[in-house]
DNA sequence: AGACATGTTTGATCTGCATCAAGGCCAAAT
DNA sequence: ATTTGGCCTTGATGCAGATCAAACATGTCT
């Protein structure tokens, strides 16, 4: 066994998953040092494109603050979001030099980047990084498959409810908030971005959000601020199995 | 660097990816021996369920022959296929004890299984297995994201054309067939399974297959045997970027 | 204050796919 | 030879969500 007692080490990079988790106490300093050497930060403004599909991508990165999206586009302009990156999420693919999707900052964004070549070398000599990355990728794959069920089989109303539940959950998780009482959060996406996430038009998104409000499932303050008084009520609207785990 | 000159070793397990790729010549015998010790085969008949979502899953496996599907089901019976496993595909998730989807044999199926515990131990001591698995999982994630674009934004006709192109490609790849002249293959799925793959109803699938036939994009012999005389013509119907790579 | 841009809501209409329903094909069972 | 059952096709109808269009809300620039 290459590693010993695992512990979490804190560092300036927040939730950066590469360094945050499964760092072995004994190897820690050496490993962290090497990571420090190859890392650098990048900032983007809301709306800026980080990278276009097909462009050369010579780094991997994790989101420090802000939100980014992965989208695929068809020639005629139809767009489908295929990934939503919140802080601590990883982007990039060891072993591939070309981006497969457009990556866009939807809010101001800071990413912690690692140049690909040295990162891959580090991966070679540090097996648990590959294992951690595998774990994360499998989680993403599970999320993608939930998403496929949503896209293929859910109604517009269920899609909206599902998205709100997903954001509420992730938000609560980030804030480490207790899962009691009202849940309050700001939508990090425009109606159009929500539509791209859900495979709908922005008009349908708008209508269904209004409908959920009218039916008392959610409350709206302005256009982005959401209040969920009864999370179970929202969950019932998602169409998912009821025992899907409460705010995880 | 833990490994040396990589080479492919052949063995009775066909395309099994775990053992097929990236096996280091020097470590080979030891590693293969340990894999042999923990592997076993399982057979299923067409239509049999391999495992239900939520069930305990104490193995990982790769498909040797036949076809399996991963599907998610909503309480009211709506179904969405989220994975299609052809020979050499991997199923299961190190680090999780419960199946997240229904796994079903759609044809007679043979899988090469590894009990999870020893497999995970082997992964610990054999870093390149984790790396290989990571590579495969990232490929699957890419495929899932293509699939999301299909589910969210493509028309019924584009969905059918895309599915046919996917199967034609994988089929051709398996058979190592040259990519010239007519492409001929048998659909491994019923109309209903195609519908579950595409987020459609079986009636719509039937109608659109007929329409592609009527329009000369494909020819049909019986209900399952497909002849594609001009693959580019089919690709044009998919809505994908034209330069999506010819038959690979 | 007015003009403009961006994002959102709401209404009217259209349409692609779902739904409901009936019948055809074919292989296996009796 | 007929029945059975699985799979597939085709037709008629309905509806959820797309599309087209207009107006509103909010913030910012001049």
UniProtKB/TrEMBL annotation, chains A, B:
Residues 154-232 form the HTH crp-type domain. The keyword Transcription applies. GO terms for cellular component: cytosol. InterPro entries: cNMP-bd_dom (IPR000595), cNMP-bd_dom_sf (IPR018490), Env_Response_Regulators (IPR050397), HTH_CRP (IPR012318), RmlC-like_jellyroll (IPR014710), Tscrpt_reg_HTH_Crp-type_CS (IPR018335), WH-like_DNA-bd_sf (IPR036388), WH_DNA-bd_sf (IPR036390). It holds the Pfam family cNMP_binding. PROSITE patterns: CNMP_BINDING_3, HTH_CRP_1, HTH_CRP_2. Keywords: DNA-binding, Transcription, Transcription regulation. SUPFAM superfamilies: cAMP-binding domain-like, Winged helix' DNA-binding domain. Residues 23-140 form the Cyclic nucleotide-binding domain. This is Crp/Fnr family transcriptional regulator. It comes from Paragemmobacter kunshanensis.
């Amino acid at each position: 066994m290459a590693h010993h007692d695992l512990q979490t080490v804190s560092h300036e990079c927040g939730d950066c998953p590469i360094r945050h988790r499964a760092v072995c106490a004994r190897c820690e300093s050496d490993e962290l040092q090497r990571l420090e050497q190859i890392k650098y930060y990048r900032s983007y403004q809301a709306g800026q494109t980080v990278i276009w599909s097909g462009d050369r991508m010579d780094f991997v990165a994790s989101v420090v603050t802000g939100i980014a999206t992965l989208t695929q586009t068809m020639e005629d302009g139809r767009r489908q979001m295929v990934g939503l990156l919140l802080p601590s999420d990883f982007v990039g693919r060891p072993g591939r030099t070309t981006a497969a999707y457009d990556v866009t900052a939807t809010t101001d964004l800071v990413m912690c980047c690692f140049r690909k070549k040295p990162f891959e070398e580090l991966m070679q000599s540090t097996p648990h990084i590959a294992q951690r990355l595998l774990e994360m990728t499998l989680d993403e794959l599970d999320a993608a498959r939930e998403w496929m069920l949503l896209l293929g089989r859910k109604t517009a109303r269920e899609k909206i409810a599902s998205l709100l539940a997903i954001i509420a959950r992730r938000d609560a998780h980030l804030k480490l908030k207790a899962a009691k009482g009202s849940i309050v959060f700001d939508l990090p996406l425009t109606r159009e971005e929500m539509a791209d996430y859900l495979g709908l038009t922005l008009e349908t998104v708008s209508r269904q959000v209004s409908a959920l409000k009218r039916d008392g499932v959610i409350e709206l303050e302005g256009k982005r601020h959401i209040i969920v008084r009864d999370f179970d009520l929202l969950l019932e609207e998602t169409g998912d199995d009821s025992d899907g785990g409460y705010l995880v």
